[in-house]
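From the pipeline queue, job 12 of 40. The input is one protein chain; the requested action is below.

Action: predict structure.
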Amino acid sequence: MHPKVAVVDYGLCNVDSVGRALAHCGASPFLARDAADIKAADQVVLPGVGAFDAAMARLTELDLVGVLTDTVLGEGVPFLGICLGMQLLAATSDEGRPRPGLGWLDAHVARIDPAPGERVPHVGWNEVDTTGPSPLFADVPPSTDFYFVHSFHVRCRDEADILATVPFSVGLTAAVARHPIYGVQFHPEKSQRHGLTLLRNFVGLR
């Protein structure tokens, strides 16, 4: 039976590309726009492109913050945040007007401070290395390239939450995990074969 994966549609992402990738990986994705949609899901994916404060404002306007928290933290439904969706896991952010994030991780979102010769936003392919074994990265070789587009990054106060890093700036968090919560700063739906492997691994989580 294909798991029902809610792709949260709050107007700040191309949800179609994420949905197509999930369907290719054996899921039954559907767009989630209200609490009933979230509650009907076996798994939840929160994609996102844009600003932290605008995204949290939209989730609040749609009354999705509470049901997401209850579903993921309360019921243990597997969750994957993609790009901005990973950043929204943090408690606070420097981007835009001050507005609290979901706060599921003890983390803060800050603007990338580029190293000499680097440019922000961090755009393009870059290698990702995990900090240890994880079912999300099963069958993904070390130092695999994934596709990034971002100007802000997540700073985890608890290093145990850092699942993978990318060698940009001083070394940034590329993925986080605290089961059933997972997040990736890159775009797996744009990262070809290995991106699909990661999504397939997520679809297999229970």
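Job complete. The two ends are 13 Å apart (CA to CA).
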